[in-house]
Amino acid sequence: MSAGRPNANRNAGDARGGLNPQDVRNMRNQAGQFVQDAQALRELMRQAGLADDARAADALIQSLRELESARPYEDPESLRQLQTAALTKAQQLELNLRTKLDTGNDQLFLSGSEDVPSRFRSQIEEYYRQLAKKAGGGL
Q1: Count of other CB atoms within 10 angstroms of residue 116
Q2: 14-49: b or e for each residue (b if 16 or more CB lie within 10 Å)?
């Protein structure tokens, strides 16, 4: 080890909270997919006349776009804050849409609820498996 570079053998991913370059690439790609999905949802909302919710989707898309850049992955706290902000916006959008569109069911199922309708359970489980796999468990 040279005197000027005491951490020369340190993994480049260590500076980003344990994320290696492949993890970062995968997470940025996943954020890009989420952007595309949110854009498609926004278009569907506009077509359905849900302009206010389409604007809320714009805010979600902006948060997801920030996760597409390399910058947040250099600082674990910044990454955590951006992920939390995007998740909060997605949850709020979902709640707003559910209250407007799910008129046949008076009961809302909030995040963390164990009372998930059986018809959605497998989809929710798959969603979390995909998040864990593609985001390295970081969300």
Answers
A1: 13
A2: eebeebeeebbebbeebbeebbeebeebbeebeeee
Nearest alpha carbon to residue 31 among 75, 3, 77, 71: 71
DSSP secondary structure, 11-58, as one string: -GGGGGTT--HHHHHHHHHHHHHHHHHHHHHHHHHHHTT-HHHHHHHH
pLDDT tens digits, one per residue of 71-81: 889 888 989 99
CA dihedral 51, 52, 55, 60 (to 10 degrees): -120
Record the tokens describing residue 101, joined without a space: 């569109």
* Inter-residue contact 65 to 82 (CB < 8 Å): no
- Name the token pair of 48: 């359905």
When computed from its CA atoms, the radius of gyration of the chain, rounded to whole angstroms, is: 19
Residues 6+ apart with CB under 8 A from 97: 45, 50, 53
Q: How far apart (Å, rounded) are the C-alpha atoms in residues 78 and 57?
A: 22
Q: 1: pLDDT confidence band, cut at 50, 70 and 90?
A: very low
Whole-model pTM: value is: 0.60
Tokens linked to 58: 């714009």
